[in-house]
Q: What sequence folds into this?
């Protein structure tokens, strides 16, 4: 059984609820959960307001992980954005901005970062993002993630994870859009039946705006959000930690075969019903036009042939499936 631990964490530029800048404290919160992959939002790189520290590089150094950083916003040499850290074998696939909602001036630019990690012999796609605050902006950005540049790209194959700070609760249109293609790791399933965990604000978490969404091929094994004094101080969000199991490919393929067989059975049944309906309509029309005993016998024989053919087609399609 192949499992790995993911964390999504909005670190608020490593400035805690006590207003202290402390990159090392954020690293301690992360290290305590022993994640294999860490998706971070709101990192400063070379910004005067946070002492010009490259926070992505420093956190990766402290955690002994490799990292990729995407600056959603750049002001001259100062950068601000998101990162993915991991100790697993990985490669970067893509990093770029998401659509702006220009009807509201001054909104913060947003982006996404996509890497591929190896969990045993399985390759898992991971997209980290931080969506905007305005609902119309969020919906455009979610549509972009679902579109051809991201999840519609040929390189996006299951198993995959989309995670981050979506600024959207489960009651929002943005969340529902993403649920059309993905499963919430905290949604009830045979493998996971516990109530969902909120992460914002860190002092009294009651909002679910940090999410981990999954494709097929992954199952939730554990969900946790640390609530110790250090985690409550380190940022205005708590980290969300999810342990996932990668399903064996054979098991996933069997599931696909079962789904395909059910679809083929349903299609065959629909075809049979269509044939029968046409045969009955023809019987009705011809009987009305030329009622006679001889014609009635011919029509009954034809109806029996149509029914037999439909049943044989049904069985053949199911057997092939």
A:
């Amino acid at each position: 059984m192949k499992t790995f631990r993911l964390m999504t964490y909005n670190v608020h530029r490593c400035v805690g609820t006590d207003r202290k800048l402390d990159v090392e404290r954020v690293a301690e919160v992360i290290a305590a959960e022993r994640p294999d992959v860490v998706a971070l939002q709101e990192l400063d790189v070379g910004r005067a307001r946070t002492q010009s520290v490259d926070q992505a590089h420093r956190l990766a150094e402290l955690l002994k992980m490799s990292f990729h950083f995407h600056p959603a916003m750049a002001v001259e040499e100062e950068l601000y954005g998101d990162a993915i850290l991991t100790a697993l074998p990985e490669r970067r696939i893509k990093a770029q901005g998401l659509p702006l909602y220009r009807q509201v001036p001054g909104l913060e630019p947003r982006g996404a970062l996509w890497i591929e990690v190896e969990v045993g012999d399985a390759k898992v796609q991971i997209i980290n993002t931080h969506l905007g605050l305005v609902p119309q902006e969020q919906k455009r950005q979610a549509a972009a993630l679902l579109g051809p540049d991201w999840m519609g790209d040929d390189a996006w194959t299951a198993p995959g994870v989309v995670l981050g700070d979506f600024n959207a609760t489960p009651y929002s249109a943005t969340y529902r859009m993403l649920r059309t293609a993905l499963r919430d790791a905290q949604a009830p399933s045979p493998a996971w039946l516990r109530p969902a965990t909120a992460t914002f604000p860190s002092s009294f978490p009651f909002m679910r705006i940090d999410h981990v969404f999954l494709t097929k091929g992954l199952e939730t094994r554990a969900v946790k959000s640390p609530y110790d004094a250090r985690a409550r101080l380190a940022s205005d969000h708590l980290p969300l930690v999810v342990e996932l199991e990668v399903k064996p490919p054979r098991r996933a393929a069997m599931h696909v075969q079962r789904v395909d067989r059910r679809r083929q059975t349903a299609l065959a049944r629909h075809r049979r019903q269509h044939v029968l309906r046409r045969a009955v309509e023809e019987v009705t029309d011809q009987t009305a036009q030329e009622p006679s005993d001889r014609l009635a016998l011919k029509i009954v024989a034809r109806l029996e042939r149509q029914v037999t053919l439909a049943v044989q087609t049904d069985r053949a399609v199911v057997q092939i499936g």
Notes: The longest strand covers residues 66-75. Residues 249-289 form the longest helix (41 residues). The radius of gyration is 27 Å.
